[in-house]
Amino acid sequence: MSGYLFDNVVIIGVGFVGGSMGLALKRRDLARKVRGIGPNREGLERAMAVGAIDSYTLDLKGGVVTADLVIVATPVGMIVPVVDTIAPFLKRGAVVTDMGSVKSEIAKKCDEIMREGTYFVGGHPMIKSDKTGAESASANAFLRARYIITPTLHTAISALTSVTALVESLGASCELMDPDEHDRTVAIAGHLPHVMSAALLHTFGVSSINLPKLPEMTAASFDDMTRASESSAEYQRDICLTNSAALTAVIDDCIGNMERLKDMIAREDGKGLREFFDRARQIRRESEERKPR
Amino acid sequence: MSGYLFDNVVIIGVGFVGGSMGLALKRRDLARKVRGIGPNREGLERAMAVGAIDSYTLDLKGGVVTADLVIVATPVGMIVPVVDTIAPFLKRGAVVTDMGSVKSEIAKKCDEIMREGTYFVGGHPMIKSDKTGAESASANAFLRARYIITPTLHTAISALTSVTALVESLGASCELMDPDEHDRTVAIAGHLPHVMSAALLHTFGVSSINLPKLPEMTAASFDDMTRASESSAEYQRDICLTNSAALTAVIDDCIGNMERLKDMIAREDGKGLREFFDRARQIRRESEERKPR
Prior knowledge:
Chain A is an alpha/beta fold and 293 residues long. Chain A has two domains: 6-177, Rossmann fold (3-Layer(aba) Sandwich); 181-289, 6-phosphogluconate dehydrogenase C-terminal like domain (6-phosphogluconate dehydrogenase C-terminal fold, Orthogonal Bundle). Chain A is 49% helix and 14% strand. Chain A contains eleven helices and eight strands. The first copy, chain A, has helices at residues 16-27, 41-49, 60-63, 79-86, 104-113, 157-169, 179-207, 220-226, 233-242, 244-266, 270-289, and strands at 6-12, 31-37, 55-57, 69-72, 95-98, 119-126, 146-150, 173-176. In chain A, strands 3-2-1-4-5-6-7-8 form an eight-stranded mixed β-sheet, with helices on both faces.
């Protein structure tokens, strides 16, 4: 092993996140060899050009046979199908981890998929993903970032130790979390804002037909509130489909709160409205205080 | 009139907005005398100290008897009661304008309230109102700002001309708009975001009881989306109560969109979800392109 944390690492999907992982592995001397796998040669060539991978292949099955560690950095909706495809071809002792922003369904399915002697450990690096493509990859993308690892009852301690060692070697802050708790947490902290932003924009779009000055009159709060919709439609579709149960529950809760506000407006309940808005600001400030840094 | 646009101006409510109006009137030599009226001596003394007013009184009725122009710069929920109180004491030819962010109900009620020979013209300066108090007032607060004027069928042309002249003399960009259209426009552009932000925070508040890491894990989109709730609870209560019809309609529409998303999630309609998010982004970009500057 010659001092490397891993001998042969394979990264499946070398966009911004996978490419940054490759660069970090190389620059920090964490892996002897990093191979990229992706759907097209152009993307893989770009990852080669920035030094994120040493070699590449388009062959998903053949590409993983010698891997000690496989990092799945595809869009979240493809993670389970990819793990399902490669599982029979992994060598004994191989560890697979993913970088998806939803964890519960992936953890459950991958636990079922993995063959004896091979291991899956779910992960979610909480880094800004407004960049795309290996050409914007950065070896420091994970530096001081929160990196959630979501072991299950089936997770082997040895595999968990490998993945947490990787995360800490990247300079990230490793945190263990139950996959269900993770998903219910990000459903509110990250996914519900996307749903609300899109809902607001559709209301805006229909209304602007009859309100010609609407686009000119949007306030700062409107811009703030709809920025989430700049994310890719594929990413947002995937979080809806993979985190459906937790997301549906919080959409319902949020609709309930909007109905409560509507009822107070209908009843002209000034005291209730004032308390509702006061409490909202208080919740925001309490949450700000509990943030790291 | 010695070259001034107005001889005696009275500003009722000399916080940041009213104070900025006073400062602009003085610095630009638009008014011979500016008197402030407010509920307490301390606020009025601060407005005197920054030079926003020449004199003040706590007497709402007596304070307006010599006014040529009365500018109501109180919180939006107090505008109609204030106009109702001063109406019998106005001299013939007096013009009253307000600076509230909701216009339809105010325009209708003030048209009814005003006595013969006195005039009401509604206005809404679209300036950032994150500052409070005359001590943060600025003579340039209205410079290049959009300033909506909302005449009705009852508005006298002479009064409308006075108010538009005032607005243009402040360096603002004057725009005429129907009060109902104004309110339906700001219901979406400005008020609905406050409702959604508060609803999201209440969902967050309840959920965080069982999800201890939630406050640490909020994404940028969550912060963006809840910034609107930093506004004062009184302001938000007032826009709910004074713009209730338009706001209720758009809350309903937005809830409908969230239900549509929920249905697509339940049906695992990946194509529909992708189209929904794609369209949302497209609406946002089209709206950005139609913005001034």
